[in-house]
Design goal:
Elements (H helix, E strand, L loop, with lengths): L1 E4 L8 E4 L10 H56 L1
Antiparallel strand pairs: 1-2
């Protein structure tokens, strides 16, 4: 029940509204749509988890490549100093 204050001349001070929960399970079409919606949400959550893991893997690969690139630069600098 929800009470709403409605001040004003000729109006009640409060009005009440009641809501009755809808029984979705009794209507096959609604049940089917709810199941489809829940399945899609599950797929989205799974894809989000997969994407997080892929991003973490790519970040790790990027860090490794950056470390390799730095090592290569240091080798080039070291070799150029040896040749001087």
């Amino acid at each position: 029940m929800v009470l709403i204050r409605r001040p004003g001349p000729g109006r009640p001070t409060f009005s009440a509204s009641f809501s009755i929960p809808v029984q979705h399970a009794k209507i096959p079409a609604v049940t089917s749509l709810l199941e489809i919606h829940q399945q899609k949400l599950q797929w989205i959550r799974q894809a989000q988890g997969d994407n997080r893991r892929l991003i973490e893997n790519l970040q790790n690969i990027n860090r490794e490549l950056n470390a390799d690139a730095l090592q290569l630069k240091l080798c080039i600098i070291y070799n150029s100093k040896l040749q001087e």
